[in-house]
Amino acid sequence: MAEDRPQIYLLTPPSFDLDIFPQTLSRVLAAQEVACIRLALASRDEDAVMRAADAVRLVAHEHDVALVIEDHLQLVERQGLDGVHLSDGARSVRAARKALGPDAIVGAFCGASKHDGMGAGEAGADYVVFGPVGETGLGHGTRAGRDLFAWWSEMIEVPVVAEGALTEELVRDLAPVTDFFGIGEEIWSSDDPVAALARLVAAMG
């Protein structure tokens, strides 16, 4: 892997078939070097989330990849996960860090807010996510532009993740100014996630 190339931060689909997805994930992890996986489930059913966490953790740790869970702080230690991804910017970072200790991964989604990102970093986040970087009807529609990533990469040491509606063109454009690409629906909606990810990785240069 090129030293200066961004790393891959993989998001799971919001829901998936436990009989199929773990094998698909395993193929993706065998094909590309992935730094971290985020269990990004839409479900609020604790039992379903725990079963999914078990299945994904087995695959992730088999490939020596860290696994964080979106927002469900209480499940991190219970399910043997590596940390938590917080979707509310800087607000919960300090409490999560206190609850999980210094070794857990704590990340924060900060939309397109430089202020939120800086707050999360100061509160102890291991990374911040800005997005969406592409065109999407989801969320409140504010895109995180290249200038935000360029400024952050130059001024702030906390690693930054670019995610949301990525295209090969956006990946090419942002590769010099981001540490990670958060990739999920871009590959899972494809018939061949391994090939879809390979195209995005090729675009990183």
Task: Name a few traits of the molecule.
8 strands, alpha/beta, TIM Barrel, single chain, 205 residues, globular, 18% strand
Characterization of the model:
- Keywords: Thiamine biosynthesis.
- Pfam families: TMP-TENI.
- One of its GO terms (cellular component) is cytoplasm.
- The protein is an alpha/beta fold and 205 residues long.
- It has one domain (7-204): TIM Barrel (Alpha-Beta Barrel), CATH 3.20.20.70.
- The protein is 40% helix and 18% strand.
- It has 9 helices and 8 strands.
- It has helices at residues 21-31, 46-62, 75-78, 93-100, 114-123, 146-155, 168-174, 185-188, 193-203, and strands spanning 7-11, 34-39, 66-70, 83-86, 105-109, 127-130, 160-163, 180-183.
- It has an 8-stranded parallel beta barrel, surrounded by 4 helices.
- Helix 4 (93-100) links the parallel strand 4 and strand 5 (105-109).
- Helix 1 (21-31) runs parallel beside helix 9 and helix 7 packs parallel to helix 9 (193-203).
- The longest helix is centred in the first third of the chain and has 17 residues, at 46-62.
- The protein is globular.
- The mean pLDDT is 96.
